[in-house]
Amino acid sequence: MTINVEKSNLTTANYAIKRIHKPTIEEFKQATDSFSQPVIITGKLEEWKAFDSWSIDYLNKVIGDKELDINVSNKNKVFTFDSETGETLSSTKMKFTEFTNWLTQEKNSEQYYYLQQQSIKLVFPELLPDIEIPNYISQKSFMVANIWIGTGGNTTPLHWDAAQNILCQVRGRKRLLLFAPNQTEYLYPHSVDSKAPHLSYVNIDKPDFDKFPKFKQAQSIECVLEAGEMLFMPPFWWHQVYSLDQLNIAVNFWWKAQLKDYFTPQARNFIVKKPLIVLALLLQKPSP
Question: Is 135 helix (H, G, I), strand (E, B) or coil?
Fold first, then answer.
């Protein structure tokens, strides 16, 4: 099943994300302009065991009936956060095999599920031998590897992360809309004092231009990440992510932002209003 995602009337930036095949560390650094521009890497993920083995049958055999927290969305398949708490809006306990059974069935209920941002080391250590940390990531800066499993149509709304990020697409495809940090003034972010300052108030698929008139000036960059590809996203780049195809599995790696990254518009607000958080992020030790 292929999901067609409705496009909004966004202005597209005059910029195409480069695809580079198995770059060396130096080539990666050059292509990303010293880790400041997004780039798609081909050829590396296909070397993972996960790329050949991560079928539903394999995952059921390896993970089994482990009970997990699965995020829930009603009708619209948008998986977002509560700006008051910073937590996802709803989740439920479900055995992994129950979740994968739902993934393979015809969807006739109003509830949709997404196994979202689960630490592989903490939750799925049995899957660690199947993946490889890309050698572009400094070991001393590495933070966490997460797994994402869902179905077509699931959407993670517009947000930014305060870390460097490589998104690795194992099964299915993802469509992404990215906005550079210099577009922040057009994206109506939540207050830096809120629990979710990384979120935008704008529904970019159906923007309310009366409420958010500056959004008309925002310039997006669009890409479709195919299975077997990796997307590097610099810190503080806004992105909205749409899962395509019936089975969608991805792994992402976060590692620390560089000091220069904190001079983006939204990061400057943190430096002024929440300097201790910035210091904690810079000093953070590797986690699971």
Answer: coil
Q: Is residue 5 situated within a structural domain?
A: no
Q: What is the distance in angstroms between the CA of the first residue and the CA of the last residue of the chain?
A: 34
Q: Is residue 203 part of a domain?
A: yes
4-11 long-range contacts, Cβ below 8 Å, gap at least 24?
5/153, 5/155, 5/175, 5/242, 5/244, 6/205, 8/204, 8/205, 8/206, 8/207, 9/207, 10/177, 10/204, 10/218, 10/219, 10/220, 11/216, 11/217, 11/218, 11/219, 11/220
CATH number at residue 236: 2.60.120.650
pLDDT digits (tens, 9 = 90+) for 101-125: 999 887 666 788 999 999 999 999 9
232 within domain boundaries = yes
- What confidence tens digit (pLDDT) does each residue in 235-285 have? 989 999 999 998 999 999 999 887 776 676 656 665 655 555 555 455 455
What is the DSSP-derived secondary structure letter of residue 15? -
Which amino acid, one-letter code, is at 57?
D
Supply the range of the domain harboring residue 88: 11-283
What's this model's pTM, rounded to 2 decimal places?
A: 0.86
What's the total number of domains in the chain? 1
Burial 133-148 (b: 16+ CB within 10 A, else e): ebebbeeeebbbbbbb
Three-state SS at 227: coil
DSSP state of 100: H
Task: Judge contact between 40 and 225, C-beta under 8 A.
Answer: yes
Cα gap 130→170, rounded to integer Å: 11
176 assigned to some structural domain: yes
Tokens encoding 156: 């993670």
